[in-house]
Design a protein that fits this description.
Largest sheet: none
Number of strands: 0
Number of domains: 2
Length: 351
């Protein structure tokens, strides 16, 4: 009997592995569809009640609404982002390649250091040919990388279609799929399967409500600051700020900090101080208040584990790693806690 069960598990593992190999090109869209379906499940439940408990109609309406809410703003943002990227490249290449660079007066007045820097800059940087070559070496890799990211997102129409189709079926049949997965997991690991499901759900909610919402809020608030202060390409800089907000222990200061310093060194003291104050007080305060508040309300998983999961997931899996990283750590933590709970009474009896 034991051999029969072992053979069944091995056969199941082989079939699951083959199935994953077949759907490998669609794993990312399927994962995004599952995450979106879970996050928007309360809204879908409401639409399901309004539709008279007709699953197909409710799934169709919810999918269409989500596509409109997500695709239209993202498309507009991508179009605007590409134009700002091109404008930023033209401005930077023109300003630094064709015009000599002059140190701010505050630096040239520094005894000994100021004159030495000014002489070195005049001798090396202000050679037009050398300056043009150096600017191209600095800018082109960054611009190429950013353009590649934007273009890659723009070319994902096919994956978006797969996500939309999968989203419809997750809405319509998600409860049955989850129940079957839960039953299958119970057969393998027993009752702890429910704890693992809870850990995955709580972590998904924490990542969406705490990390993603907080990063988007910081990017939007920083973009408003860039626009008010008069820094060029506020949408591009706001998007970069939102991306850096996802990186633990570095954060948005990686964007607004250098820009503020540059404004100060360029004798735009008022704009530089204003941006420093906006970033340090408003943008950082949003992160320090919003992220812990949302994550603590969503899960009992330590904040630092969620943050490390986000950073490690991004490095290991790309954008989808925003969710996969914390989910893997959450399941690991759930297994650890379950093992401790099971071992606790035995240890107590031994003592």
């Amino acid at each position: 009997m034991q051999n029969h069960q072992s053979f069944g598990l091995i056969l199941l593992g082989v079939v699951v592995g083959l199935g994953l190999f077949v759907v490998k090109p669609f794993l990312a869209p399927l994962a995004w569809a599952a995450i979106l379906a879970y996050v928007t499940d309360p809204a879908h439940r409401r639409i399901l009640r309004l539709s008279g408990d007709r699953p197909t109609l409710a799934a169709t309406v919810t999918t269409l609404l989500l596509i409109i809410v997500l695709v239209v703003p993202v498309s507009i943002l991508l179009i605007r982002l590409q134009s700002e990227l091109a404008a930023a490249y033209r401005e930077l290449s023109t300003r630094f390649a064709e015009q000599p660079f002059v140190l701010p007066e505050a630096i040239t007045r520094i005894p000994v250091v100021g004159p030495a820097l000014n002489e070195a800059l005049t001798r090396v940087w202000n050679d037009p040919e050398l300056r043009k070559q150096q600017v191209n070496e600095w800018l082109e890799p960054w611009i190429r990388e950013l353009a590649g990211m934007v273009g890659k997102i723009g070319r994902s129409a096919a994956q978006l279609a797969v996500t939309a189709v999968a989203l419809f079926f997750f809405y319509r049949d998600g409860d049955q799929v989850l129940e079957q997965v839960r039953k299958g997991l119970r057969k393998v690991v027993g009752d702890p399967a429910d704890h693992y499901f809870k850990a995955v759900g709580d972590t998904t909610r924490a990542v969406v409500s705490g990390v993603i919402v907080s990063a988007m809020a910081q990017g939007f608030i920083a973009g408003v600051g860039y626009a008010i202060i008069g820094v060029g390409t506020p949408i591009l800089l706001g998007a970069l700020t939102a991306l850096t907000a996802l990186i633990p222990f570095i954060g948005t200061v990686a964007v607004w900090g250098p820009i503020s310093v540059w404004l100060l060194l360029s004798d735009q003291v008022g704009a530089g101080l204003a941006l420093l104050a906006w970033g340090a007080v408003v943008v950082n305060l949003t992160d320090n208040i919003l992220k812990p508040l949302l994550i603590s309300n969503a899960t009992d998983i330590p904040l630092v584990m969620v943050l490390f999961g986000v950073m490690g997931g991004l490095l290991a899996f790309g954008l989808i790693g925003l969710f996969l990283g914390p989910l893997i750590l959450a399941v690991l933590l759930a297994i650890w806690r379950e093992w401790l709970d099971e071992d606790g009474p035995a240890g107590a009896n031994a003592i």
